[in-house]
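Friendly challenge for the regulars: who can give me the structure tokens for this chain first? No prize, just bragging rights.
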Amino acid sequence: MFAIGEASKRSGVSIETIRYYEREGIVQKPARAENGRRSYSEAEIGQLRFIKRCRDLGFTIKDAKALLNFGGQTDASCKIAHDMSKAHLEIVREKIANLKRLERALEELMSNCASGTIQCPMLDQLHAD
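First reply, four minutes later:
Bragging rights claimed.
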């Protein structure tokens, strides 16, 4: 059993985030030692790591919790996880496309600028109606 600081180090999840996850019911509250401090098992630390990996991949907390709750490997849980990942991938691809459009727009604005001149087409364009 591990204290919250050690659970944080082992999982890569900050102490405040661990407390938030417990408060919001994303992970179960751990047992308490006689001194009242939280005491985490390897399995609970594994759940924190799982949620962190989901979040690192950009899944929402709701989706990460749902994936965590699938638990056992079944055909149904695998299909649901696949479908959730596919939907998330579409969102990621849409964001990438939007960022590429933003990149092109900024490059175009910047290409119109001549450094050090009094007239700045970029600022004019940003101020335009």
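The longest strand covers residues 31-32. Residues 75-111 form the longest helix (37 residues). Your move, everyone else.
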